[in-house]
C-alpha cells in the first residue's frame, strides 16, 4: 500500500511541470483509516508546498494520519515556512518519503525534525521513480548547471534533411507535439545560428492548454542573426539570449541590445567559437536549471564533446533519404576512436504512431 499511495503522490507531482522551476516537483497524499483524505502538489514557484496544499485540501482532521510525500519535507524558511514544522504542529503520526532532499544544506534535516518529535519515518519508497521525476532539480541543486536534453529528429537512415536542406517535416504531428511538452518542462531552449538562418523558428511552447515558454538561447559567435528573425520579435514573457563573442559586429550588437526582451551576452571564445562550458555555467548562475537543445549537427557535436549533455531524445521517422551530402544529427569533426564515443544507457523507447522515440541518458 505504501507504493500505491506513493505512486499517486508522484502522479500529482507531475501537475507542476513547467511551473515550479527552479524548485522540485513534489506531490503529497494524506491517508487516514485506510482512505485518502487529502491530496496536493507544489503548484508554482513561490507558492505553498505539496504538504501544505494536501493539508488544506483534507476532508477531515489530519491528526494521527500518514502523509506520503515524494521529497523530504523542507526544514528551512524559503519562500514559505518549513513543512516539517507544519507536520509536527498538525500531529501527523507517520511520514513516508520517496527520496531525501539532495541539497547538501538541507538533506536529512527535515527528517531529523520529524524524528525528534516522535513521528515515524519511512524512506526510499519508489525512490528511483522520484529521482527520475526530479532529475532536473537534482542536477541543478548539486552542480548549479542546467540539466541538458539533446533532442534530435531523423529518418531511419540517420538524415535530418535532404541534400537540398529540406527538413520540414521529418517526424509526424504527434512527435512534434511531444517536443512542445518537452519545451514546457524546461527553462531554456538552445539552438545554433544555422538553425535560425535555415528554419527561422519561434522556439515558443504551443500546447492545447497553452504551456509555458522557455528562455531562448541562440549561439551566434559573430551575430549573423537577422533583425527580423521570429525569436527577436515575439510576444513572450521570456527573454531571448544571444550568446556571441568579441568577434561580433559592434553596430549589430547595439541594434540587438535595443530590442525589448533581447539580451546579448559576450562569451569567451574556445576554438574561435562560443565557449559552451562558460555559457552553461552562466545560464546556471542566472537561474536556468534545464535546457532543451534543438540545434543543428555542429552544436550537437560540440555539446556532446564538452560533456554537457545529460539526456538524449531522438525521434526516428520510417523514411529513407540517402545522400552523402545529407546531414546527420551529430556533425562536427566527430570522434576519432570508438573508445571516445558517447555511450548511452537506461534506454526507454516510445512510439508516436509510426515514429519511434528513443530516450537515453549519457553515461558519465
Task: Explain what the structure shows.
The protein is built from eleven helices and 16 strands. The model has no long low-confidence stretch (mean pLDDT about 95). The chain has about 375 residues and is α/β, with parallel strands linked by helices.
Structural class: alpha/beta
The main β sheet shows up as: 9 strands, mixed
Q: Give the low-pLDDT segments.
A: none
> What is the helix content?
25-40%
Indicate the mean pLDDT.
93
Number of helices: 11
Strand order in the sheet with the most strands = 10-9-8-7-13-6-14-16-15
Radius of gyration: 23 Å
Shape type = elongated
Question: What share of the residues does DSSP label as strand, in percent?
Answer: 15-25%
Compute the separation of the termini in Å: 35 Å
Total beta strand runs: 16
SSE string, helices as H and strands as E: HEEHEHEHEHHEHEHEEHEEEHEHEEE
Short description:
The chain is α/β, with parallel strands linked by helices and 364 residues long. The chain has helices at residues 2-13, 50-56, 83-89, 109-116, 127-133, 135-143, 173-185, 193-199, 250-257, 276-285, 297-305; strands at residues 27-32, 35-41, 66-71, 94-99, 120-123, 147-155, 188-192, 215-219, 240-244, 262-266, 269-270, 273-274, 290-293, 311-317, 344-352, 355-362.
Structural features:
364 residues; alpha/beta
List the helices and strands and how they pair.
Layout: H1 2-13, E1 27-32, E2 35-41, H2 50-56, E3 66-71, H3 83-89, E4 94-99, H4 109-116, E5 120-123, H5 127-133, H6 135-143, E6 147-155, H7 173-185, E7 188-192, H8 193-199, E8 215-219, E9 240-244, H9 250-257, E10 262-266, E11 269-270, E12 273-274, H10 276-285, E13 290-293, H11 297-305, E14 311-317, E15 344-352, E16 355-362
Parallel strand pairs: 3-4, 4-5, 6-13, 6-14, 7-8, 7-13, 8-9, 9-10
Antiparallel strand pairs: 1-2, 1-3, 11-12, 14-16, 15-16
Helix pairs in contact: 3-4
